[in-house]
């Protein structure tokens, strides 16, 4: 035994040395691979320090345990094609993001098949071409594949189902042809719109919204029924059905199928309705009045029939007969918007505007023409007395850039806020709503005006006392009037709403130091406002799932791009397109936004400073009218 001991330890030492050698040589090979990549792909971002021994500090390169595991160079202005022996040799790679470089071209290299640990592949927004290699779907770990907005052609590989962990498949805006294969994976994100696909949509994909398929010559649910062509396969099958000669018989079969389907569907619907009614009756009998949530009519049902005449909040009626409530009607702060009572409000025709973090919003239109917005708060955590006190304070605030709180209603089961209605909806919807569709992109004058209006409103809130903050600044809480004047909504509601109902996921606006969504400091407001400015100028949503997934938030993304290249690179193309020479003021506003998103609260400017700076930018934009472009 004793004899063997030294041998054993020697062995361990040898192993250790071998291990070290293996690790360094692997990192060395990762480094060589990145150098190969750099030789083919050009762009200012790849000014990597070649004298540094390890590639791990290079911009966009992330290492774990001495190997390159992520390469993220989004929106970095890269061009050229991907070489063999480059990324394909990064054998420990898990995340590859080259999205929105717009000029990366050529095919996906064949040696990507070595990337067996790859989980996230983001190549969208480039000019990649060639066929989508089928080996992508046999990479055992792949979770998200986004190849949208490229020039990929050929058919969608029919082995998609081999990627058993896949949840995202985005192939929109390419030049793909042929049919869509049957995909039986439980995908969470899917889009093949704007290609040249044809044939019928496999039944396994028919529950996706039609926008996921538009811009092709596809047919079948959710698009129009296939007329005269082969009917969609009823069950999931790996291959598209072979074409049949006898198409007449088949379409008869399809019609019979549809009729049967309709009848069965109707029966199921009736059955569900019946069950629901019974359940509801039972619940009412059980007298479950303690539940804060309304027992019936989830907003979703109203959303499905938005223009229908429907009571705003049916459950209030059921509870308005209860006694012991201080006031059974609306409490008004301003009457200049017209007179109405709770009954009238409930009878007004309602349309769902949206579901926010504090509750759902409705547009209520009275017969005599008045329109108001109603917010139905959920998860109110403060007792009635405090609720009424806080609302009294909110109702007393008046500023041209704050959405006016007209009235509120409080009962045990229902808390409603009545606001002035803003016809152009939220900044978020305007910035990120369906592009195309005749939507006019916001020009610079409007954007700087919106920034200034919102800044003034927040400055006003902050000026009341050092503890008053907005608490929930984001683009969906900045509303626009008919003349695109910005008005801020949802101010001061954070402290009365349960913090668990506020988003604990990364929402993209939250300052890094915030731990309790109910306690937002003024400096945290400044951070959120900074994110809003960056959103306004880049056109990118801070809540964008992929930004977050890659661990990059909007401020860090803007910072990383502007570190390497001209700040103009981050700007919304819709903004710069009509702004030929005059980017200077835009960049000034961008810098203001960036200073607001400083990591440490003390490094952020005050809202008064921010407002003054934006006023200067706005004035200097106004005093030097921009030359008319094109
Ligand atoms: C990439 O990997 C292949 C196969 O392992 C190897 O032959 C080649 O030399 C590697 N390329 C670089 C640049 O390391
Ligand atoms: C490049 O890396 C070397 C070695 O680590 C270092 O001495 C040098 O300062 C770096 N150069 C730059 C410009 O960062
Ligand atoms: C699919 O992509 C198109 C853009 O090509 C977009 O307009 C549409 O909303 C997307 N639909 C879904 C379901 O993602």
TrEMBL record:
The keyword Kinase is annotated on this UniProt entry: yes
Which part of the chain is the Protein kinase domain?
347-622
What's in the keyword line of the UniProt record? Kinase, Leucine-rich repeat, Membrane, Receptor, Repeat, Signal, Transferase, Transmembrane, Transmembrane helix
Can you name this protein? Probable inactive receptor kinase At3g02880
Q: Which GO terms describe its molecular function?
A: kinase activity
Question: Where does the secretion signal sit in this chain?
Answer: 1-25
Q: Extract the ranges annotated as region (Disordered).
A: 229-248
């Amino acid at each position: 035994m004793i004899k063997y001991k030294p041998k054993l330890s020697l062995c361990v030492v040898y192993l250790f040395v071998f291990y070290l050698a293996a690790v360094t040589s692997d990192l060395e090979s990762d480094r060589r691979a990145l150098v190969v990549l750099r030789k083919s792909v050009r762009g200012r971002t790849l000014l990597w320090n070649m004298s540094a021994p390890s590639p791990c500090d290079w911009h966009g390169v992330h290492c774990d345990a001495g190997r390159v595991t992520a390469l993220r160079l989004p929106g970095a202005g890269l061009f050229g094609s991907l070489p063999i022996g480059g990324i394909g040799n990064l054998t420990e790679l898990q995340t590859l993001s080259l999205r929105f470089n717009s000029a990366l071209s050529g095919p996906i290299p064949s040696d990507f098949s070595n990337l067996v640990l790859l989980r996230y592949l983001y190549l969208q927004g480039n000019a990649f071409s060639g066929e989508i290699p089928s080996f992508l779907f046999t990479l055992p770990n792949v979770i998200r594949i986004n190849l949208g907005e490229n020039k990929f052609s050929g058919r969608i590989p029919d082995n998609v189902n081999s990627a058993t962990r896949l949840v995202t498949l985005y192939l929109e805006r390419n030049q793909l042809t042929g049919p869509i294969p049957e995909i039986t994976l439980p995908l969470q994100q899917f889009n093949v719109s704007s290609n040249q696909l044809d044939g019928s949509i496999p039944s396994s994909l028919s529950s996706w919204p039609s926008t996921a398929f538009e811009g092709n010559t596809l047919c079948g649910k959710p698009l129009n029924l296939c007329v005269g062509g082969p009917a969609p396969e009823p069950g999931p099958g790996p291959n598209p059905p072979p074409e049949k000669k006898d198409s007449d018989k088949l379409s008869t079969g399809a019609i019979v199928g549809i009729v049967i389907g309709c009848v069965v569907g109707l029966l199921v619907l009736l059955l569900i309705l019946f069950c629901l009614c019974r359940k509801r009756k039972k619940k009412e009998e059980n007298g479950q009045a303690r539940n804060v949530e309304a027992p019936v009519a989830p907003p979703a049902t109203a959303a499905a029939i938005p223009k229908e005449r429907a009571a705003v909040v049916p459950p209030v009626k059921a509870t308005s007969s209860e006694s012991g409530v201080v006031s059974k009607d609306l409490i008004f702060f301003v009457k200049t918007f017209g007179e109405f009572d709770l009954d009238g409000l409930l009878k007004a025709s309602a349309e769902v505007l949206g579901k926010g973090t504090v509750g759902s919003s409705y547009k209520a239109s009275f017969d005599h023409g008045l329109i108001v917005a109603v917010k139905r708060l959920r998860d109110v955590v403060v007792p009635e007395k405090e609720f009424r006190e806080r609302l009294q304070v909110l109702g007393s605030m008046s500023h041209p850039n704050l959405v006016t709180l007209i009235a509120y209603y409080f009962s045990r089961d229902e808390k409603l806020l009545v606001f002035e209605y803003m016809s152009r909806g939220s900044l978020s919807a305007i910035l990120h709503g369906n592009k195309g569709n005749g939507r006019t992109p916001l020009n610079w004058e409007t954007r700087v005006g919106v920034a200034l209006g919102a800044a003034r409103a927040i400055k006003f809130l902050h000026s009341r006392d050092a503890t008053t903050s907005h608490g929930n600044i984001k683009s969906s809480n900045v509303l626009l009037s008919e003349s695109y004047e910005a008005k801020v909504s949802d101010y001061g509601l954070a402290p009365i709403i349960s913090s668990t109902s506020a988003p604990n996921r990364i929402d993209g606006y939250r300052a890094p130091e915030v731990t309790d969504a109910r306690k937002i400091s003024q400096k945290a407001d400044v951070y959120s406002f900074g994110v809003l400015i960056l959103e306004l100028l880049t056109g990118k949503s801070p809540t964008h799932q992929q930004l977050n997934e890659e661990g990059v938030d909007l401020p860090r993304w803007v910072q990383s791009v502007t570190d390497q290249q001209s700040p103009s690179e981050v700007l919304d193309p819709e903004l710069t397109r009509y702004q030929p020479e005059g980017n200077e003021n835009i960049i000034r506003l961008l810098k203001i936004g960036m200073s607001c998103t400083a990591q440490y609260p003390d490094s952020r400017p005050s809202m008064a400073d921010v407002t003054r700076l934006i006023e200067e930018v706005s004035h200097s934009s106004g005093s030097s009218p921009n030359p008319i472009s094109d």
